[in-house]
Amino acid sequence: MTAARGSCPERLISSKRRRIIAILAASTFVISCSPAPTPTTRISATPAPTASENAAPAQVEPPVVDRAHVVPRLEWSPDHSTLAVTTAGVSSGQGRVDLLSADGAQRASLTAEAAAWLDASHLVTLETTPADPDGAAMAAWLVDVQTGSRLAIEGRFSGLLGGSHGAVALTRTPTQADSDAMAVIWRDGALDPAPFGGSPVAWSPDGSLLAFATAPRVPLWASTGGSEPARLVIVGVPSWERRFDSGDDLVDARLPVYFSADGRSVAATSTSGGTLIFDLATTTPTRVEASSPFGWTSNGGLILVGEDGQIRLRDGDGVLTDPALPTGLPVYGPAGSIAVLQPAATITSGSVQIGRNGTWRTVSGVAAGRGTPIAWTADGSACFLATGSSDASRELDRVFRVTVP
To answer: Between β-strands 359-366 and 41-44, what pairing exists: parallel, antiparallel or unpaired?
Structure first.
């Protein structure tokens, strides 16, 4: 993923399909967006595209992944050579991880409910067991994607979060003696337990910091709007030294947390609405009302989406600018490429505007919400997009490779 990471936050991964569908369905209705102006090409999410009279033929290939179950996550290896496409199963043992090259060719397929890159050659995967088919206590494995060899990781886990810098955070399944979720980090061939409860929600770009959502200091009934209130705690890795604690400035743990490219700032959604921007060197947050964060640009601009659906960029001095993009939910890619997700009334009737330098291409008939997985190629010339079938009989179960105009 790129700096924005707006479509698929690097969050805790659950293997329960019903939870994934609920999250994606809910995120589809985050913002109601109007159609973008004058796209050059309109593409159906089905493999047979059409082109407008004066536009180049639309470059949409047949789906590179076509499964019967929902695709919740797309994640590149650290060297950007291999894309891991995770497919959640309906029942135990049906989860898959397809490994694709940058051109969409399939390299391998693994049985797993969740996966995260440890480094360019190794994945940490979670698999259900006969004793726990629901995925609340899954077995973890270290998988060498080159040789296929596997090493069991001790313990049972409910989720994971990859940092791609030689470390993966796993959420340990709580026991009767310890009811709080506890995180451990797999690094250097061993597990390193966190000294406090909480769920890992985001790694800094260089893998040196890890953000946790922990129990708030205020009662849960104090929250509003159906949010999931949490304190944001950021620690150093591997020292576990606390670098930041949001205290009573609670964030909504249901929504992504975004580190800036330099790792010095974090943006999250407030439980009362709006955006909280934390400078890790200070303790006072900056609030931006009537907006939601959608990541950072490579040069340090915070990407915001207002209640009116307009995309705005906020610089380090707090100045807001209009980048003249279609309304919607943005996912910035390399080399100026941008995808703008445009939700609609049903999960597979939205659209995505994909473009660069003012030239846009529309992919229609897709589930376009905050949870729609998108992964850019390293040069920004194409993206992989998870969509549903055109007749809405299946949801987010196919992955297409779409070239940028």
So the answer is: parallel
Residue 10 in any domain: the answer is: no
Angle at 308 between CA 304 and CA 309, to 5 degrees: 55
Q: Please give the pLDDT value at position 88.
A: 80
Residue 47 has pLDDT above 70, yes or no: no
What average pLDDT does the segment 230-238 reach? 94
Residue 137 CA to residue 16 CA, distance in Å, equals: 12
Contacts (Cβ under 8 Å, ≥6 apart) of 53? none
Q: What is the CA radius of gyration of the chain?
A: 20
Number of domains in the chain: 1
- CATH number at 44 reads 2.130.10.10
The structure tokens listed for 116 are 């995260």
- Report the distance separating Cα 255 and Cα 253, nearest Å: 5
DSSP string covering 301-330: PEEEEETTS-EEEE-TT--EE-----SSEE
Round to whole Å and give the CA distance between 3 and 336: 12
* b/e burial code for range 238-268 (CB count within 10 A of at least 16 → b): eeeeebbbbeebbbbbbbbbbbbbebebbbb
Lowest-pLDDT range, 208-212, 253-257, 312-316, 363-367?
363-367
**Tokens 């399944």 identify what position?**
173
5 domain residue, yes or no: no
120 lies in a domain? yes
Q: Which domain holds residue 93?
A: 17-173+180-403
List, for residues 218-228, the tens digit of each pLDDT value. 444 444 456 78
In a domain, 11, yes or no: no
Helix (H) / strand (E) containing 124: strand 122-127
403: exposed, middle or buried (C-beta count within 10 Å: 0-12, 13-18, 19+)? middle
Position 212: which residue type?
F
Supply the pLDDT for residue 175: 67
